[in-house]
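ok trying this again, last paste got cut off
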Amino acid sequence: MNRKNAKSKKKKASGVLLAAVMTVNAGLLAALTAVVLGGESAQIMRKSDMTAYEANYKIYDITPGNSQIQMTQTPEQDSDEFLRLVNWDNPIYEEPEVVYITSLLTAANVECDSRRHINETAGKALNEMMLAAHQEGEYKFIIASAFRHIYEQEMLWNRRASKEPNYGSDPYNKPVAVMPKNNSEHTTGLAVDILCEECPRSSEEFANTAEGRWLYANAHRFGFVLRYGADKQGITGVRYEPWHFRYVGIEHAKYMYEHNLCLEEYVELLDTIG
């Protein structure tokens, strides 16, 4: 199956799922919008416990009896920045502002090359996550990668493609480990590869380490999601990467974690109800 047919099949299946969510699972929709209908209308702030580094939230305006759900963006923060979808179908051509990760890290349980960069908001959330892990156990993390320039991604892609000329030609059936230069979300500055002393190289074995298990169970508390799950490879077109985490914001991450949604599914769900 070529990429176009695979994409069509994927979207059709996803559309059926979303239709079911919208028409049948009212409880799920209610959980997503976080609104309890009791009066003529309700306007509720999605972020109830905003921290200093977490200012990405939206306001929902819902009127009972009206199936339309309007999402009104607050003027304080453009939260779409953290939900930006970069994948096979959504390339990125510009590079964002980033800061040195080590300028934000205060946690003693993490190693990071001083040359690595990240989005500032994501970096502060990363530090909070590392501090929490340090308080909750004997975890030792390694920041293996974060922001990546487009030219760096191009070199990685060319190196892999030179060995396999057809590499990436059918990603939804044969997920890849390396993305083309304009299709890697590392360029957003919102993605970070986290490993540990027990598993210092990118390997699925990281999922079985104490650090990997802690991140899987707790990353959403700080706004991060496991971006490329083992059961989402046919949707993302990327192989299972238990070390790759993406910052999306706390409320988004919590919902995605609780409902086992990858970013592609979540963005499509928001588009459907929006």
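PB: full thing came through this time. Residues 16-78 have pLDDT under 50 and may be disordered.
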